[in-house]
Amino acid sequence: ILICSIIAFMIIIERFIFLQKVKREAYDLFTRTHAEIESGNIEQALQICKTNKHSIPGNILRAGILNSKKSRETITEAIEDAGIRELPRLERFLHFLGTINTIAPMLGLLGTVVGMIQSSDVLAKLGTSNPGQVISGIAVALLTTAFGLIVAIPTLIFYNYLIHKCQDTINMISKQSDEIVDVLTYDKKLEIS
Question: At 129, phi and psi to the nearest 5?
């Protein structure tokens, strides 16, 4: 249970830091590329994305810009495909939190079973002549259950919170990508009318 709590804590901290970094990158990258695209500097916007090739927003935006000469639907589809490819990086390690959330109470229940077996064994050997040893087995059982729940409950809360943050980040990137698509296809709308 202690190992589960340490792993959960490390994942939670890492994901908080990572998601904050992605949000900052997205804001900075979209601001810079939006300005370049509005100025007609598509190559410069693409270069900005290439220099940020390890960033999730950079990869998503690059997919759209690479298809900038194509139709709006093609650009949108390219951005969506890139988003789907990048989604596992956003949700990385979160499945471990879900697993820890499931395992911790089970480990607590295992401790409960072991404690009850010890208490039953003491009762079988000594009868009721030594209630202190019987009570200590029951205490072990209750403590392990409590520790399992102490790990599982916050893990579940943070798991749900981080899944929500991932979805918020995806929505933010999607909204900003839509703005980029609008800017990339604005000239085409003028040509049609």
Answer: -75, -25
| pLDDT tens-digit map of 132-189 | 777 877 888 889 999 999 999 999 999 999 999 998 888 888 888 888 888 877 655 4
Going by C-beta distance under 8 Å and a sequence separation of 6 or more, which residues neighbour residue 144?
1, 107, 108, 110, 111, 112, 114, 115
Cβ 84 vs Cβ 106: under 8 Å: no
On whether the CB atoms of residues 6 and 14 are closer than 8 A, the answer is: no
Q: Which residues of 71-84 are buried (b: 16+ CB within 10 A; e: fewer)?
A: eeeebbebbeebbe
Q: And the tokens for 67?
A: 């298809």
Helix (H) or strand (E) holding 55, with range, is none
Contact, 26 vs 171, CB < 8 A? no
Q: Measuring CA to CA, how many Å separate 142 from each of 49, 63, 103, 104, 131?
A: 55, 55, 17, 14, 16
For residue 129, pLDDT over 80 is answered with no
Output the pLDDT for position 137.
76
**Global pTM value:** 0.78
Read off the pLDDT band of 192 (50, 70, 90). very low
